[in-house]
Amino acid sequence: MDVDKIIENAYFGREITKEECIEMLNLEDASAEAFKIRAAATNIVRKRNGNAGYIFAQIGISCMPCEGNCTFCSFGKDHSTLRKTKLSDEDIIKKTKELSYDGKLYGLYLMTMHDYDIEYFLHCVKLVKSNLNGPTQIYSNVGDTSYDGFVRMKESGVDGVYHCWRLGEGKDTKLDPEQRKQTIFNAIKAGLKVLDALEPIGTEHTPEEMAEHIFFSKKINTFQCGAMGRVNVPGTVFEGQPEITKLTLSKYEAAMTLTFSSMKRMPIMGIHEPNLLGYISGANMITAESGVNPRDTSPNTETSRGLNIIKCREMLKMAGFTKLALGDDTLVNI
User: Fold this and answer.
1) Helices (H), 190-237
2) Taking the model in full, what pTM does it have?
């Protein structure tokens, strides 16, 4: 593989083939070639957006043993230890104000289970919109939804939808892979931005399998993407198994970023779990989390796994970002 040629093509916005993407994903983690693509990925991203980082946040607004029964998720009905809960209006208002206190939050996800009450969700959107500080965009992170449901979200002020055709869909989940894809197409038809990720990556997933998902994300013109390693949550079938390393994850991030470099608008690139290796490999987004979290058994992830806004900003600053992008895409000092 001619890594230098791939990097040159990425700088000029030329197409990178699926075969070249697979070859990058296959690189030995600590090889000189792997570090070359990491360096190129972060340099391209920073040049194209003024060295700006993006801070997102998520509020888990409701929880119950989930019918999706994903074997990697803390909500799966066959193994979940989380009780059925729903945030009160007061809690949603409090969390919204805390997360957007300085007006520099780019986007806020509202997360529910696969089966959810759209009336409650739209009520939460209204609460959030009334209490946000700054031009923060609002995104849904919900289960499979119809076109009409997404039209209602759009009309309520939702800007986009986080929804994934995930690795292992239909095998590690009870959900139909084609329905997951159809939900994404429903959102696009309704005029919503689509945000997704290559997730949840386990040690068993092959470069060929990952490349299929990366090129699907490219096909749908993903607004925000990134790489997320699977967290082998206690109580799930993956408990105690090896997880991919941060070094491996950062290589995948770089391969994705270079593959996306030919897109007219490069996606905002996240990495989970957030780590400095990822931010020198193409990632430029970090997420603060509050409430329930599919990678955590605590009902309040902000006291456990989830980062808060201050820690998110500190990590971006330590990674060398000098600006923050606001929800209206203006840039301010970090």
Assistant:
1) 207-219
2) 0.95
How far, in Å, CA of 293 to CA of 302, rounded?
9
Cα–Cα dist 110/82, whole Å? 18
The DSSP bridge partners found for residue 66 are 76
Distance CA 157, CA 149 (A): 13
User: Which CA distances in Å does 311 have to 292, 306, 307, 308?
Assistant: 19, 10, 6, 5
Q: Which of 270, 243, 316 is nearest to 109 (CA)?
A: 270
What gap in Å lies between CA 321 and CA 257, rounded to an integer? 17
Dihedral in degrees, nearest 10, Cα atoms 197, 199, 204, 207: 0
How far is Cα 49 from Cα 55, in angstroms, rounded to an integer?
A: 14
C-alpha span between 137 and 327 (Å, rounded): 6
Distance, in Å, from the CA atom of 62 to the CA atom of 225, rounded to the nearest integer, reads 24
Tokens of 104: 């520099």
The DSSP letter of residue 110 is E
SS3 (DSSP) at 59: strand
Distance between CA atoms of residues 257 and 74, nearest Å: 29
Please check whether residue 45 is in contact with residue 267, taking contact to mean a CB–CB distance below 8 angstroms.
no
Count helices and strands in the chain by DSSP H and E runs: 11, 13
- pLDDT tens track of the chain, all 334 residues? 799 999 999 999 999 999 999 999 999 999 999 999 999 999 999 999 999 999 999 999 987 888 888 888 877 778 877 777 889 999 999 999 999 999 999 999 999 988 899 999 999 999 999 999 999 999 999 999 999 999 999 999 999 999 999 999 999 998 999 999 999 999 999 999 999 999 999 999 999 999 999 999 999 999 999 999 998 888 888 889 999 999 999 999 999 999 999 999 999 999 998 999 999 999 999 999 876 677 766 666 676 556 899 999 999 999 999 999 999 999 999 9
Half-sphere exposure of 240 (CA within 13 A, CB side): 2
